[in-house]
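Usage

Read records sequentially. Each one opens with the input sequence:
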Amino acid sequence: MKYLFILISFLLSVQLSLAAEKEYVLQSGDTGLSIAKDGKRLSLQTDDAHYLSLNAPYVVTLEVNAETLNGYYSSVKEEKGSLVCVAKLKSTHGTVFHVKDVFTPDTENHFRIDREVTIDKTGKGDDYFNSYFGLTLQRKTQINDFEFFVPGIWYRNNESLRRGSLASDYTDNYFYFREDRLPLPLVSAREKASGLAIDMIHLNANPETFYGENGVNRIVDERMQFGSLGFTETDSHSILFVFPGIEGETTYVGRLPEQKRKGFAYRSHPVKAGIKHVYSLTFGFNQTKDFPDLVETVWKQAWNKYTPAVHKVDVKDAYEASIEVLDTYLLNLNGAPGWPFSVYLPNGIARAYNYQMGFIGFQISNAYFLLRKGLETDNKEYVRKASEVVDFWVNNSQLESGIVRPWADAYVDRKATWRDYEAYMRVTGGGMEGMMGAWNTMRKHGIDKPEWLAYCKNFAGWLIRTQEKDGSFYLRYDWRTGKPTHDSKYTTTNIIRFLIELYSATQDKQYLDAALKAGEFSYDFIHHDYLYVGGVIDNPNVKDRESGQMAIYAFLALYDATGDAKWKEAAIQAARYTETFMFAYHVPMAANDTLTDFPKDVSIVGQTLIATGHSAIDNGLAFSSFQYYRLYLLTRDTHFLEMAKIIQNNTLSIMDLDGDMRYRYRGLLTECFNPQSNRGHSVRQQLPWNQASILEPMHRFMDAFGEWDIDVIEQWPMKKRQEMIERYARTQGLEKE
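and closes with the structure output:
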């Protein structure tokens, strides 16, 4: 037996020796990347997974004139810890493509590829090409074996995505996403059984394009320097990068013919000498304990590759410019004062005077901001005008039950009327928080407005009587009957911060109890299930960024009220989800477009996707700079500090503070624009929420620190900052009744 063991050991060592003679191996952590010395095999392997090249046994894949061209490396060499691989692929028309791939160990369990494709010889009849780099798992799998992370698009599974959304249909085989719609150019998939996740990140991406690059028909142009990242899900699972970027089977690029529900938007480079076809990627594995761990890990990996910069803005100037807009556009029509639903840009003409109390209308909160400015500067006209807005809502919108009518139309020739528009938790919650702010700022200046607080109490009473046994609230209610008109409960978070604020001011425990019941529901069905759904109520009831923001606010408020660590954990998870909608690398405007609404010399870093199902972006994360700074103080995770600074500054870049965009007022800003199709073109209107997004976090910073600039606050001793934020947490910045 002893000799048999020796023989087996000898044979194994010989086998390993022979294998070593046949391949080069790069090691990174527990993961090995091996390439056969004859160039005919590429393998990525760790203990739990084995991947080969995309179209194994081939190691290089191009697509020329819509036909696949596969090949092997003709040369593989070791050079200074890297593997330098060269392939020459010849098409049927005689074009010779020279492919140079350099592989290098990167961060732990990851590798880097730097690829350059040149054309040594062009063959007549070859018009266009793409190159692919990908890896395929070497065993059979199904799509439901994995949880996916594609920022702003795909979170865990395809639940709560509308029909036609990217990644919504699991009968698809191809999931290719243009990187210019991704907040960071990365994709990742986690195998549920093992927790092992594979990811791919495009490094140094500069996704250039040109005006007119639209539609599903193939476009061939060397000015396109964006790629696509994604997956194929057939008998097995592949992760890949395509350059330039093809999108499909589902795409938002143009319209497919009516008879075709799905298809691809093809983009290719011309077959010609001197073409620029260069890119770098990292790829590898992370062992993750759950899906939230995957999101944090991979997002931070990509973040650290791009290190997004803060573009400093004068916060005080942004504040004053915003107050000027509020003062200018406030109009009292027949006893119904408020701000126009929208303002056209750049001419600054008001579109229509109709008033939504919260959400996109933000009437009551904007009144609070102007009221506070008036009280702090002894501007009696501001105080008078803002108080009229608050009184209009208190005296006219609430029914005897406590429910409110959230949307009014004002007229020049008659009294205001109320729309049939339902009482959404998102709309009413925002309105009530504005009312609490207005009551509080008056209280701080020695003016008691019990009727304003009673308005909040009456609505909270209706909430308590309406709350479901499981602690939830429905998305919306008919204000005439008080009955729900939608079965979704995912916006239960939207009302929690208001209830905590009311409890802080009144010390009436019934409000805390209702908030805790709503919190338990939200923890179980939103936090636990990773389903942040429905916050963008003018979009379909889908996964979105704003639901994440609402969850942060709710769970932080519950943590403040109870000190229970579970709420802090939930707030952190919601914040990590939410930030993945924020662009953390620059997508340049189209090179030949002189009419973009977004400044061509300004980075889009800090602007955020609004929801899944489309690629519109806005400055809506501006609301959350205070909460991200709070999370930094709670966790000491400097990533949250970086986020807070970017949010506080970069989101203001779409204001016209320097006058370059020639808006009528410097404080105006466009509601949303597109980073992909018709880049930088916007709706050319401002809504009241845009002003609120600038002003709301400033007031929370002032309530907590007496200062709104994070750079100034950061100069203070940590102990002082901690004491100040703990005092804020105890009171929510509110006076007692």
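Summary fields computed downstream for this record:
- The two ends are 87 Å apart (CA to CA).
- The chain is about 35% helix and 20% strand.
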